Amino acid sequence: TAAPSTAPTPGGATSQGPISDADITAWKARFNDVLARPGEHLNSKSPEGAQPWTNSFWAFFNPIDTCLMTWCLPCVVFGKTHYRIQKSPTLAGYEPINTSCLLFCGSTAVCMQWLPMAMQRADFRAKHNLQGSCLVDVALACCCGCCDIVQMDKEAELRSASIGSVSSGIQQQYQPDGGMSYPAEQKQ
């Protein structure tokens, strides 16, 4: 039997089903960076003046559909968040089963799901100048992974929406209404 053929992707890399060569390369580079400088990463913190997270870590139940989806299929929500952060804020071209989703499943099989979760959280914090540290990222991923995934997904969605509204520019300038008017006096 012949081996399955690979299909070219827009970036020129080849892809076989839900696996993206570019995503594999990016995750490998990130893992290698962490392994090459563990002390630097472990002691990393957000800079002074970092913004607080908009969504509370403990508000994982709102919206309930995201909470339930994360409880049942955390890999899909993790992959969606990664896609929104790294590729398309609008989720253009998103597939529920993707490289990050499969990475999460594989790491869960060996009880290491906290590692990609903490790495994704650190990348997101750095990208949006959010408060936190590596130790907090690891603790959140280890102690309450579902809450962590939900918070990341909601925060990524919120920030993607704000990026979209800024990039679309001003649609229409302020238009005052007709001003104040007084009802005409009624004659009796």
Automatic annotation (TrEMBL):
Top-level taxon of the source organism: Eukaryota
Pfam families assigned to the protein according to its UniProt record, in alphabetical order: PLAC8
Region annotation (Disordered) ranges: 169-188
Matching NCBIfam families: A_thal_Cys_rich (TIGR01571)
Protein name, entry field: PLAC8 family-domain-containing protein
Organism: Podospora australis
